[in-house]
Structures are given as structure tokens and as C-alpha cells.
Design brief:
With 196 residues, the protein is α+β, with helices and mostly antiparallel strands. Helices cover 45% and strands 20% of the residues. The protein has two domains: 45 residues, no CATH class; 141 residues, no CATH class. It starts with a helix and ends with a helix. This is Type IV toxin-antitoxin system AbiEi family antitoxin domain-containing protein.
């Protein structure tokens, strides 16, 4: 039985365990014995798996595979903010089903389907465990778009950190902002930042 548990991926779902031939009784027995940890309803992680830097984001990505980590959560991943949000902020397409996830807590944003994949990339939330996230430029533009919700200081601090990083591309910010309908505020923020 222990060998079977060790053959499972670091993080897996109930469906994955069934595909490996694990009976639900054994699965929950492993959980109760501390061999696996339940990250979210139906999402488990082996206790002997390498440590994950963002286990909550791994859990959410298994619960909602189409979702993309966005806004302040994405800014934290890219080291564009020191803010910590109690939620994993995710984007889903406008017409898709809203994921209902009790734990870890999530904040769901509905983004236009035409621009949903703009700036999509991934990061390793755990060794060999990629999670979908918006790239730093898209993250800065989204924070600027939602500055009324998150506050201008977060948006401007993310912009300044982005511009100070190696490989910053101000033109890409404007390109994304134009597509996402935030060109005016982004242009003004860039003008202020470059005047310093």
C-alpha cells in the first residue's frame, strides 16, 4: 500500500488516485494516518513530497484547471508587491462556470474571453508543478485597471518594481493596456514614473 502511495504525483486529485487503482477507503486512511495531506476538497499532497512555495495555488489549479492566478496574487508571485492577500485571486473567462472553492479561499475575477490568455505564463509553485499565472506586465496592467478596488498605491508600487527589474518592457505595458482598455491610466502612470 505504501508503494502505491509513493507512486502517485506530489499533488493529485481523488480522480487521479482512482486511476491509479486506489480505493477511496485507502485514500482517506492515508490522510488519517498522515501519509497525505488534504489541500482542498478532493486535492491531496503526499506528505513526503518536496516542499511547495505556493501550496494554496497548487490546490486551486487542481480544482479549477482553466483559472489563471491574477492581480495581487500574481504580483506576489512576481515580487511586484509585499502585500499578502487572504485569497488566491484567479481569473476565469466571462462565460465559464464560477469555481466554488471553500478552501483555500479564492477571489474570482471574470475576464473577457477575447483577452483571457493575454500575458499567460506559468510558474513552479512546487518542484515540477506549474501553475498558470499572468506575466508581470499583464499583472501591472490589471492592477492599474482595478486600482479603484485594490488602491492606487498597490498599482503604482507594482509599476515601479516592474520598471526597476531587469528586462522591463514599458512598451509591452502600453500594448497590453491598449488591448485591455486601460491605456490612459497606464500612460499617465508611466509618465509620472519616468519623470522621477
Amino acid at each position: 500500500m505504501k508503494e502505491l502511495a509513493e507512486s502517485l504525483p506530489s499533488t493529485f486529485t481523488t480522480a487521479t488516485s482512482r486511476a491509479y487503482g486506489v480505493h477511496p477507503r485507502d485514500l482517506y486512511g492515508w490522510r488519517d494516518a498522515g501519509m497525505i495531506i488534504e489541500l482542498s476538497r478532493g486535492v491531496f499532497r503526499r506528505a513526503d513530497a518536496p516542499p511547495a512555495s505556493h501550496p494554496d495555488m497548487i490546490a486551486v489549479s487542481h480544482r479549477s484547471p482553466r483559472a489563471i492566478v491574477c492581480c495581487v496574487s500574481a504580483a506576489a508571485v512576481h515580487d511586484l508587491t509585499d502585500e499578502m492577500t487572504p485569497f488566491v485571486q484567479i481569473a476565469v473567462p466571462n462565460r465559464s462556470h464560477t469555481p466554488v472553492i471553500a478552501y483555500p479561499p479564492v477571489m474570482v475575477f471574470r475576464f473577457d474571453e477575447a483577452t483571457f490568455d493575454l500575458g499567460l505564463t506559468s510558474f513552479e509553485a512546487g518542484p515540477g508543478e506549474p501553475v498558470r499565472v499572468y506575466d508581470p506586465a499583464r499583472t501591472v496592467v490589471d492592477l492599474m485597471r482595478f486600482r479603484g478596488r485594490f488602491g492606487e498605491p498597490i498599482a503604482h508600487a507594482a509599476l515601479h518594481r516592474y520598471l526597476a527589474a531587469a528586462g522591463a518592457r514599458p512598451a509591452l505595458l502600453l500594448e497590453y493596456a491598449e488591448v485591455l482598455g486601460a491605456f490612459g491610466p497606464m500612460r499617465a502612470a508611466l509618465d509620472v514614473a519616468s519623470a522621477r
